[in-house]
Specification:
The chain is about 70% helix and about 0% strand. By secondary structure, it is mainly alpha-helical. The chain has one domain: Orthogonal Bundle (ABC transporter involved in vitamin B12 uptake, BtuC). The protein has a two-stranded antiparallel ribbon with strand order 1-2. The radius of gyration is 19 Å and the shape is globular.
C-alpha cells in the first residue's frame, strides 16, 4: 500500500517538476512566461501523436520538447525581441496552445496510448520499498532528477549561470559588460519551453497513456506557483513538486478510504493549496524582495 501511494505521488509530481525547472531558468533571466500551461498541453499532444505514429513512446519525448520549444520561440519573439507585455503574451500563448492541442488531438481521442516502460537499475531496484519506488521508474522520472541537479549547478556553480542571473537582476549593467541580454533570455525561454513540453509528454506517456483534451488540467499554473514556492531555487522545487503531487493524489485515496468529504472539494484541493501558498509567500515582503529576480517581468530594449 505504501509503495502504491508513493508511486502515485511521484507519477503525479514529475510533470510539474519538469515544467517548473524550465520556468526557474526563464524567470532567473528576468522573463515571466505564463504560457507554461499552453506549452505543456502542446507537448502532451505532440508526444502522444508521435508515439502513436511510430509505435515507440521514446520518440514522443524529443517531439514534445521540440513542440514546447516552438511555442516558446513564438513567445520569445514577442516578449523578448519586441518587448510586448509578458503577462498578456503568456496568457495568449496558453489560450493558443489549448486551441492548437484541441485541434491536433481531435483525431487521437479514444485511441490507446503507447506508454513508457519502467527501467530497473540493477542492484538498487532490489532494495525493499525504495527500490521499486525510486529505481524502477520510467526515463522521465530519472530525467527530472538529473535535470534538477544540472539546473542547480548551472545557475549557482557556472559562469554561464552567473551571466543569466545577472541578466535577470540588472540587464542594463549586463549589457554594458558585453553580455547579450536578448540572446540569453531567448535561450532561457527556449529551454523553459522544452522542459514544459517534456512535462506534458509525461502526462500522455506515463500518467495517463492516452490523449484527453485539456489533459494538463491546470498543472502549468501549479508549476508557476512552484517556482515562487521554491524561491527560484531548483533543489527546493523537488520538495514543492512532491508536496503538491501528494495533495493531488490525496483526493483519490481519501475517496478510496471513504472519507466523508465532497468530491468537488477534493478535486479543488490542489488549486486551493496553490492559492494558500501564494498568499502566504506574498505576505512576506522581505522574502519576496530578497529572492525575486530584480528585473523579473520588465522588458529590456538595448540601445541601438
Amino acid at each position: 500500500m505504501i509503495e502504491a501511494v508513493l508511486l502515485s505521488i511521484i507519477t503525479a509530481s514529475t510533470a510539474m517538476l519538469l515544467a517548473a525547472l524550465g520556468e526557474v531558468v526563464v524567470e532567473r533571466s528576468g522573463i515571466i512566461n505564463l504560457g507554461v500551461e499552453g506549452m505543456m498541453v502542446v507537448g502532451a499532444v505532440s508526444a502522444f501523436a508521435v508515439a502513436q505514429m511510430t509505435g515507440d513512446a521514446y520518440w514522443g519525448i524529443p517531439a514534445a520538447a521540440a513542440a514546447g520549444a516552438a511555442m516558446a520561440l513564438l513567445f520569445a519573439m514577442l516578449a523578448v525581441w519586441f518587448a510586448t507585455n509578458q503577462v498578456a503574451t503568456g496568457l495568449a500563448l496558453t489560450l493558443f496552445g489549448l486551441g492548437v492541442a484541441g485541434l491536433v488531438g481531435e483525431r487521437f481521442i479514444g485511441l490507446p496510448g503507447v506508454g513508457l516502460q519502467p527501467i530497473a537499475i540493477p542492484g538498487l531496484a532490489d532494495i525493499p520499498i525504495a527500490g521499486r519506488v525510486l529505481f524502477q521508474q520510467n526515463i522521465l522520472f530519472y530525467l527530472s532528477i538529473v535535470l534538477t541537479v544540472a539546473v542547480a549547478l548551472f545557475l549557482f556553480r557556472s559562469r554561464a549561470g552567473l551571466r543569466l542571473r545577472a541578466v535577470g537582476d540588472a540587464p542594463a549593467a549586463a549589457q554594458a559588460l558585453g553580455i547579450s541580454v536578448l540572446r540569453i533570455r531567448t535561450l532561457a525561454v527556449l529551454f523553459g519551453g522544452a522542459c514544459a513540453g517534456v512535462g506534458g509528454a509525461q502526462l500522455t506517456l506515463v500518467y495517463t497513456p492516452q490523449w484527453i483534451e485539456n489533459i494538463t488540467a491546470g498543472r502549468g499554473w501549479i508549476a508557476l506557483a512552484l517556482v515562487v514556492f521554491a524561491s527560484w531555487r531548483p533543489l527546493r522545487l523537488v520538495v514543492g513538486a512532491y508536496l503538491f503531487g501528494a495533495v493531488t493524489i490525496a483526493q483519490f485515496h481519501a475517496q478510496a478510504f471513504g472519507v466523508a468529504i465532497p468530491s468537488q472539494f477534493l478535486s479543488a484541493l490542489p488549486y486551493i493549496a496553490t492559492i494558500v501558498v501564494l498568499v502566504l509567500i506574498a505576505s512576506n515582503k522581505r522574502f519576496m524582495m530578497i529572492n525575486t529576480p530584480a528585473a523579473l517581468g520588465r522588458p529590456f530594449v538595448p540601445d541601438r
